[in-house]
Amino acid sequence: MTTEIVIFAVLFLIVSGMGFVASRWRRPDDIASLNEWGLGGRNFGSWITWFLVGGDLYTAYTFVAVPALLFGAGATGFFAVPYTVIVYPLVMIVLIRLWSVSHVHGLVTPADFVRARFGSPTLALLVAITGIVATMPYIALQLVGIEAVLKTMGVTGDLPLIIAFAILAAYTYQSGLRAPALIAFVKDALIYVVILVAVIYIPTQLGGWGSIFDAAQAKFDKTPAATDGILLNANNQLQYVTLALGSALALFLYPHSVTGVLASKNRDVIKRNMSALPAYSVLLGLIALLGYMAIAAGVTPIGTDVNTVVPQLFDKMFPDWFAGVAFAAVGIGALVPAAIMSIAAANLFTRNIYREYINRDATDAQQASASKIASLVVKVGAVLFILLIDPQFSIDLQLIGGVIILQTLPSVALGLFTRWFHRAGLIAGWIAGMGAGMLMLYNVANPATHHDHFGGSAFALSKLGLDTKMTIYAGFLALAVNLIVALLGTVIAKSAKVVDGPDATRTDDYTADQGDPRVHDLEVTSST
Amino acid sequence: MTTPRTDRSPWNWLLLLPIAIPLIPALFNAVEPRLFGIPLFYWLQLGFVLVSVAATLVVYHMTRRAR
């Protein structure tokens, strides 16, 4: 146990030390400016961009939440694989148009785009707030990951969460996006080593893949719950499919994914990255199966916290020193994306709320300090999500964030293809979708922690009066409500001749590429 | 500069394959046949990654800018 803590602490200290050094990396002239702090000066090459985007895959989500769901519920948890298979082709179709229009008009956030496209500051404000709030539970998931590792090493009580929060806050406050960008290399290297060792070594110790699945099958057969098992059943197939599709649609609406894609040099770079990234989904799938390995190894979670199964598995199967390395990989793997996410949310606040509504003539230094404070607030919000919601599986934190962010799909993603929607319809749709989503989440109970509300994201269709045991991803249903209201609202607004906002974009803006005279580097426009 | 650029290409339809196939549980919701002891449900869905890589690679190469 002591060896584990020492190795974990040493690796963690080295890495956070690198974070502080990163403040001086590539000689930024003035880190006080928002452009430097929040966008790393935008002079990252495509390699670093790639690490930033790919870094979204290897988070506590991958290492802790997905295996925990397989451990507890079986096949349903494997939705993460179709989810990450679907998302890249979708990005290639959708976000590539956002890249073009953003580089023509100097847009940096999804809210910037909505403002230019629909001429509606209100809609832009809604999109900005949605992005910030939806990021909080996703960051919360990362904190839960660090917490799980600390718990396994014997740190008890509220201390793990406090430590996780303090580390994250301290080092993003100090050096902005530079810290996570530099650390991304170390993080990925550590993670690859741990994954490869885990998926090769552990199965050999447990008698091969066949017996791992047999053990999982045996465990699920014994439980009274009808929803688990190593295959899907008639009642959770719809949930599985809507979860995969809904998560994929949600992922690229998050502010941090948009930042990553916009930082690419040109359209071809995005396409190339999107064709290379799916390969990582294979590793993600193998990591997911750590949940079954934990079953086969007879691992039990600490207390009722299923998030600890993977750290517990490492603790049991690996020699102490390597368990320490693995814990550091999980911890740093949670820290880096959490930093990237909180910075992206902070940028959103500064650009679309602070500069728009609070201080129109803000200096660069004022914007940077507003961002830093906003990123702290976002992290506090994340902690509140953990304390107040306490869902059965930490993955539900991410799925709840998905329900929220999906409500920006009509204005952001569909807005990239059509200007048919009326701004009033989109606003009405957002309100209806968000209302429906919150109502559904409120009505999802969590039997494990005895919470009646906000216990997960699988909404029982029987609550709508349907005679079925089927469940569906709440975000998907909420999005459907949003779309129907937006459609009807648009028809009504148009027939009532309600004034629509001006569209600042042209059709060919959406296909412009590097070299086009209208395409500007974003660092020029975003620094103003 | 004379011809307006477009991102419409018949190749883009290929991207629908990796989006649609993983969303049809009837294709993979079974234990047998196993591969290295891994049930069909798991190995086939991992296999879909190859479909995604292939489709995105082909579209990337066919739609990249002529230079």
From TrEMBL, chain A:
Mode of membrane association: Multi-pass membrane protein
A Pfam family per the record: SSF
Keywords: Membrane, Transmembrane, Transmembrane helix, Transport
Region Disordered: start-end pairs: 506-528
Residues that span the membrane, as ranges: 6-26, 47-71, 77-99, 120-141, 153-173, 185-204, 238-256, 277-302, 322-349, 370-389, 395-417, 424-445, 472-493
GO MF annotations in UniProt: transmembrane transporter activity
Entry keyword Nucleotide-binding: no
Compartment(s) of residence: Membrane
A Gene Ontology term for the protein's cellular component: plasma membrane
Domain of life: Bacteria
KW Ribosomal protein (keyword) present: no
Entry's family note: Belongs to the sodium:solute symporter (SSF) (TC 2.A.21) family.
Official protein name in the record: Solute:Na+ symporter, SSS family protein
Record organism: Planotetraspora silvatica
Lineage: Bacteria, Bacillati, Actinomycetota, Actinomycetes, Streptosporangiales
Automatic annotation (TrEMBL), chain B:
UniProt keywords, alphabetically: Membrane, Transmembrane, Transmembrane helix
Transmembrane segments: 40-60
Record lineage: Bacteria, Bacillati, Actinomycetota, Actinomycetes, Streptosporangiales
Organism, as annotated: Planotetraspora silvatica
Name listed for the protein in its UniProt record: DUF3311 domain-containing protein
Entry-linked InterPro entries: DUF3311 (IPR021741)
Annotated Pfam families: DUF3311
